[in-house]
Amino acid sequence: MHWHSDSFERPDVSDEERASDKMIKLERKLRWIGQEAEADRVAAMMRELKARRILSAPLPASVRVRHPGGDDPCFSDSGEE
Q1: Neighbours of 27 (CB within 10 A)
Q2: What digits encode the pLDDT tens for the residues 31-76?
Q3: Considering just the CA atoms, what is the radius of gyration of the chain in Å?
């Protein structure tokens, strides 16, 4: 049985990953046909979207935020080292 790559969508792949894969393929196709400027624009869009996704993602639970006045000696109010 032959599957066309666009006709079969894996259920374990998120819509975000699928869209990212399509943008990567578009960038490669544009470079292949000599459309370097367009490919550069697609690559820049992907970098911007990745940066936004990273900045808007919640911090993992393992990240501990330290506040002044806590038990962290770096934020000690006593002035002692």
Answers
A1: 19
A2: 999 999 999 999 999 998 888 877 777 767 666 566 666 555 555 5
A3: 22
Q: Kindly tell me the number of DSSP H helices and DSSP E strands found in the chain.
A: 2, 0
Mean local confidence (pLDDT), 24-36 = 95
CA–CA separation, 72 and 70 (whole Å): 5
pTM for the whole thing?
0.54
Do the Cβ atoms of 40 and 31 come closer than 8 Å? Answer: no
Q: Which helix (H) or strand (E) element contains residue 55?
A: helix 36-56
CA 8-11-15 angle, 5° bins: 90
In whole angstroms, what is the distance from residue 39 CA to residue 65 CA?
40
